Recover the amino acids of this structure.
């Protein structure tokens, strides 16, 4: 499918994904999955049918199964599982780094009177570990801890836009995973894929992205060609 044409000057708000879009964290999702699966097995739940889910969705599913018999047991499972994934996320963040140009990108958007927000399925602690002064560069950051339903549900974009006073029709969601494109579409924003993660241009076009960027800072030139 060809990318759609739209008027970039109609965009005043840019919502970014974090890992793979503004920073490199190298989270070991396989290790995360193994450790959570082993916790699930210890709770007497067969984890095999959950193998093709994302880890957060695996945890939710098992939580709901366990809650049928014991709400406390389900809550304690969720707490333990989240501790496992947070430890792995924070460890990855310690070894991670912002991409070159991320701070300049956020500063450039501000100078061009474009608003920016960041939404991530990661936890706040990991984001702060890799980007301690994030709020000096981007006032609105919506992590997993801030919402009930994470991407691809639109709740994170909706919350970011309500804090920014933005509107989906004047916003673009940028991310390195097709799930980011799906999230933008669910919220009614324009969408852009970036090639700084593990996906290719075709993957984003297939997901229905409006544009594909080599890296996130390219958005400045796309939205304000007269300035950048
Ligand atoms: Mg990402």
């Amino acid at each position: 499918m060809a990318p759609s044409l739209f008027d970039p000057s109609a965009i005043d708000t840019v919502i970014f994904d974090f890992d793979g879009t503004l920073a490199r964290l190298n989270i070991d999702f396989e290790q995360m999955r193994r450790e959570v699966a082993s916790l699930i097995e210890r709770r007497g739940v067969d984890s095999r049918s959950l193998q093709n889910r994302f880890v957060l969705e695996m945890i939710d599913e098992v939580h709901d199964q366990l809650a049928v018999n014991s709400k406390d047991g389900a809550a304690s499972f969720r707490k333990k599982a989240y501790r496992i994934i947070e430890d792995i996320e924070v460890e990855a963040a310690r070894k991670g780094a912002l991409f070159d140009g991320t701070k300049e990108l956020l500063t450039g958007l501000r100078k061009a009177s474009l608003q920016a927000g960041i939404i991530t399925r990661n936890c706040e602690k990991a984001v702060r570990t890799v980007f301690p002064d994030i709020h000096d560069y981007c006032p609105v950051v919506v992590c997993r801890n801030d919402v009930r339903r994470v991407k691809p549900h639109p709740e994170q974009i909706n919350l970011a836009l309500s804090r920014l006073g933005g509107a989906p029709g004047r916003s673009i969601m940028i991310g390195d995973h097709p799930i980011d494109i799906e999230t933008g579409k669910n919220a009614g924003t324009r969408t852009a894929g970036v090639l700084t993660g593990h996906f290719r241009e075709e993957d984003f076009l297939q997901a229905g992205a409006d544009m594909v960027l080599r890296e996130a800072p390219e958005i400045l030139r796309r939205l304000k060609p007269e300035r950048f």
